[in-house]
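step=encode ok
step=design start
structure_in=
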């Protein structure tokens, strides 16, 4: 039991990276789902998604009116991509029903970490012209420094994830020192996230400074917690990692990766793909840089752009 709880044991470290990569790939999908559900609350029709690694994710929707984006009903549309993953990330450690296995507990920690860090700090600050949070602040005449306010929610998620991991670490090595605690948090939580951030920076062609500063807040908070000491040790009996679990998470990574590729891969002239399961109406938010891949037959010329006067203006 003690070996399986050690975050730095090779089998546990591998399980953590697999579950972490799963959480990383799920995060932009959950963000897009949050905007889609928020748009539906405002009376929109949800018709697709685009989830590029280097841009703000979008739920593609038909809007009820030309000025929908500036109405009060649009608040859930603009903020849903942060609210849904934020609530899930902050609630997952305490409330998610799960089996008592190392893989499920590590997935819990990585979901708390990535659902908050990526969707509250990184993704919203990739587009400072047309991003959801930027547009919401502009439409409501709110100050731009509020862009960094969601980082506090990400800090809470990072601390929850670090506490979860450190409780394992204390049960495995009660006398582990500061270097061990820092290594447990850093080597478990950061590699999958850093892989996503590196891909995002590579595709974008430069480091988005504000997004990087926002990400630094929860990362430093988690490392600061590890520096300060151990929480209470993990006390439940738990099942260690298995090859079957690794295969299941590997299959999940392939499926999520294929969905991200289909719904957000870069194409020529700076565009990205987007998946459509519905037909765009006269007022929609399909940006000019989105190259729609329709899952249903549609007539030529269906896709109008918000930037061409179809909505969101």
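sequence_out=
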């Amino acid at each position: 039991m003690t070996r399986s709880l050690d975050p730095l044991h090779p089998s546990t470290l591998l399980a953590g990276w697999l579950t972490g990569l799963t959480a990383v790939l799920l995060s932009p999908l959950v963000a897009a789902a949050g905007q889609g559900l928020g748009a539906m609350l405002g009376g929109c029709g949800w018709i697709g998604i685009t989830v590029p690694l280097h841009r703000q994710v979008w739920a593609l929707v038909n809007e009820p009116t030309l000025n929908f984006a500036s109405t009060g009903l649009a608040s859930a549309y603009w903020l849903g991509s942060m609210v849904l993953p934020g609530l899930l990330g902050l609630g997952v450690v305490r409330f998610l029903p799960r089996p008592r296995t190392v893989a499920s507990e590590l997935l819990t920690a990585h979901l708390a970490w990535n659902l908050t860090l990526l969707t509250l700090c990184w993704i919203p600050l990739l587009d400072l012209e047309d991003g959801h949070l930027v547009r919401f602040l502009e439409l409501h005449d709110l100050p731009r420094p509020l862009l960094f306010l969601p980082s506090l929610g990400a800090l809470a998620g990072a601390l929850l994830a670090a506490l979860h991991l450190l409780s394992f670490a204390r049960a495995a090595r009660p006398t582990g020192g500061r270097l061990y605690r820092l290594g447990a948090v850093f080597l478990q939580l950061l590699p999958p996230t850093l892989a996503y951030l590196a891909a995002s920076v590579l595709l974008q062609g430069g480091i988005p400074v504000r997004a990087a500063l926002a990400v630094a807040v929860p990362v430093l908070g988690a490392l600061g917690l590890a520096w300060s000491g151990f929480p209470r040790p993990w006390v439940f009996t738990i099942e260690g990692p298995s090859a079957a679990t690794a295969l299941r998470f590997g299959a999940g990574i392939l499926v999520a990766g294929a969905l991200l590729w289909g719904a957000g891969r870069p194409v020529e002239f700076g565009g990205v793909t987007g998946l459509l399961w519905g037909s765009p109406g006269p007022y929609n938010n399909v940006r000019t840089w989105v190259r729609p891949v329709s899952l249903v037959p549609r007539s030529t010329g269906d896709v109008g752009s918000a930037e061409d006067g179809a909505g969101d203006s």
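step=design ok
step=annotate ok -> Residues 304-310 have pLDDT under 50 and may be disordered.
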